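Chapter review: from sequence to fold.
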Amino acid sequence: MFNPPRGLPLADILLISLFLGMLHGITPDEHTWPITFSYAVGEYSTKGGAKAGFLFSLGFTIQRAFLSTLGYLGLAAFYLKYNLDGPVYLVVGLVMALAGSYVLRGRYIHLPIDVLLGGRAHHSPGAERVPLHEAKAREVPIKMTIVHGLIAGFGFGAYASVVTFALAPQVPGLIYAPLPGAMFGVGTMIMQIIIGALFGSSLRAAKLTEDDVKYIGRRTAGVTLYYGGLAFALVGLLVILLPQIDAWAISTGIPIPNLDAIDIGLILVLVTVGAIGLYGIISSYREVVRLRGSRGAKA
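The token string follows.
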């Protein structure tokens, strides 16, 4: 599948593109998982999480159809000459940070050092200094996921290389050129809807009220988008200034792209989803428990 032969019929090209998209969607890719997680958890439901995965993949699919057309025309060679990972990381990070700043109600550039060191957060991180229990994070701008998908689609990896340079040039004519990219996007969409639904329903496992789940979901989304966005932007700047960083990798011995090495992309996934996202969920949940306890004591 990763080395398709020449002379494939159109049906085989599209089927392989679909399967590659599904593999791309289910493996921890830095262009998909952090964004889907950030928006899906903010929807705090299975249906909302699936919607986040769908909208992100919709923008991604449109961009991939365009990219496979460039591959057919031989115009995608700039990916072989220029490394676009740095600029893509930077732009994606800035858009994530802006969305996170909106959710958290106020632009700010500070790290919650007091909380990280075990102190209590007495105020919301918003521009207005209101008690945390009175703060209400705004709804996550779910439609922004389409914009993220369009931007993230310019990221390029092993799966995209097969579709763009091996499969797209084999279609029988220009009118069919967008189809491999579109099928790749649909495959990604299928898996991202499933992953988004799982992320979105994760908060339902705990016995919390509807308001508690909304608070934790939105707060986690805001924290993940904001701080994850800053992480993406920082890595993007580093890759632009020091391109050799993007080539760093430690092999895992797993013959599957996105799992075959510990590299910048995988580290971004682990930092954004694993570290920042988990911190957002735990800190928000603890705050809800503390507030519930204080209300019970007053009663």
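Two observations follow directly from the output. The beta strands are 249-251, 261-263. The two ends are 64 Å apart (CA to CA).
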